[in-house]
């Protein structure tokens, strides 16, 4: 399976600090996406980075992709209590394969 | 408002009693999918559909059925539910599906199912 694996499983930081989450995957991909899930709710798409891109920004989010290492990172700068959620990476394989999700990183931002 | 709507949101049932979880999207999306989410296991895909009358198995299809008779609806059917199907279920849709390179999903709010 090309399932992504997030690291760490859980992360606790103070408000205002930066949060970094990592995702590793096994096979070649078309793109990698990050989603956010507030407790027990549906996932919300945050950002998509294509295999030929190395870095992408969206507001306080910065995503990097290293296809040689088969890894990605999500950086949330100047975190807020409202950023408390689980974050999932999802990979779309280079064949006709459905999006596959990792197990997520649980982020707690303490005010 | 563009959305994916699932019903019911919460359900407690007993082993063997057939149930259907409905999913409807109002975005004219081609692709629809069902996931289940369990602690420690992340999201696992049950079934997906690329278009009307086209469905495919995901990673964990056993014990589930789906149908796609209309573009907007993609119900999940549990013919004979068992306790190991107790889970949080999500329906999702996207404008472009598998292989498009832009399979960005919109999720429903989830359906929490308990099978006793």
Features:
heterodimer, A: about 110 residues, mainly beta, six-stranded mixed β-sheet, five-stranded antiparallel β-sheet, B: about 120 residues, seven-stranded mixed β-sheet, four-stranded antiparallel β-sheet, globular
Strand content of chain B: over 45%
Largest inter-chain interface? A-B, 27 and 27 residues
Determine the oligomeric state from the structure.
Answer: heterodimer
Helix content of chain B: under 10%
Largest sheet, strands/sense/barrel of chain B: 7 strands, mixed
- In percent, how helical is the residue content of chain A? under 10%
> Beta-sheet strand percentage of chain A?
over 45%
Mean pLDDT over the full residue set of chain B: 94
Number of strands of chain B: 11
**By helix and strand content of chain B, what is the structural category?**
mainly beta
Global shape of chain B: globular
- H/E order of the elements of chain B? EEEEEEEEEEE
Q: State the order of secondary-structure elements of chain A, H for helix, E for strand.
A: EEEEEEEEEEE
Low-confidence stretches of chain B: none
How does the overall form of chain A come out from the CA principal axes? globular
Rg of chain B over CA atoms, rounded to whole Å, is 13 Å
Largest sheet of chain A: 6 strands, mixed
How would you describe the overall organization of this protein?
Chain A has 111 residues and is mostly beta strands. Chain A contains no helices and 11 strands. In chain A, strands 2, 4, 5, 9, 10 and 11 form a 6-stranded mixed beta sheet that branches. In chain A, strands 1-3-8-7-6 form a 5-stranded antiparallel beta sheet, with no helix packed on it. The model of chain A has no long low-confidence stretch (mean pLDDT 92). Chain B is mostly beta strands. Helices cover 0% and strands 49% of the residues of chain B. Chain B has no helices and 11 strands. Chain B has strands at 4-7, 10-13, 19-25, 31-38, 42-51, 54-57, 65-66, 76-78, 87-94, 106-107, 111-115. In chain B, strands 2, 4, 5, 6, 9, 10 and 11 form a 7-stranded mixed beta sheet that branches. In chain B, strands 1-3-8-7 form a 4-stranded antiparallel beta sheet, with no helix packed on it. In chain B, strand 5 (42-51) and strand 6 (54-57) form a beta hairpin. Chain B starts with a strand and ends with a strand. The chains are: A mainly beta (111), B mainly beta (116). The A-B interface holds A 1, 3, 30-31, 33, 35, 40-45, 48, 50, 88, 90, 92, 95-104 and B 4, 33, 35, 40-43, 45, 48, 58-59, 88, 90, 92, 98-99, 101-110, 112.
């Amino acid at each position: 399976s090309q399932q992504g694996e997030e690291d760490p499983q859980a992360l606790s930081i103070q408000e205002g600090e930066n949060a970094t989450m990592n995702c590793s995957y096994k096979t070649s991909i078309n793109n990698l996406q990050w989603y956010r899930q507030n407790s027990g709710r549906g996932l919300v798409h945050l950002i998509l980075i294509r295999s030929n891109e190395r870095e992408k920004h969206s507001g306080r989010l910065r995503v990097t992709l290293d296809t040689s290492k088969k890894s990605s990172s999500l950086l949330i700068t100047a975190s807020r209590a409202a950023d408390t959620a689980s974050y999932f990476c999802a990979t779309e394989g280079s064949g006709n394969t459905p999006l596959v999700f990792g197990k997520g990183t649980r982020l707690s931002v303490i005010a | 408002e563009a959305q994916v709507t699932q019903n019911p949101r919460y359900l407690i049932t007993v082993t063997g009693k057939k149930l259907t979880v409905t999913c409807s999207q109002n975005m004219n999306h081609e692709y629809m999918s069902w996931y289940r989410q369990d602690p420690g296991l992340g999201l696992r895909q049950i079934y997906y559909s690329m278009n009307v009358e086209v469905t495919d198995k995901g990673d964990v299809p056993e014990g589930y059925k789906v149908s796609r008779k209309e573009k907007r609806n993609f119900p999940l059917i549990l013919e004979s539910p068992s306790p190991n199907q107790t889970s949080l279920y999500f329906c999702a849709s996207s404008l472009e599906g598998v292989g498009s390179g832009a399979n960005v999903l919109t999720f429903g709010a989830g359906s929490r199912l308990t099978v006793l």
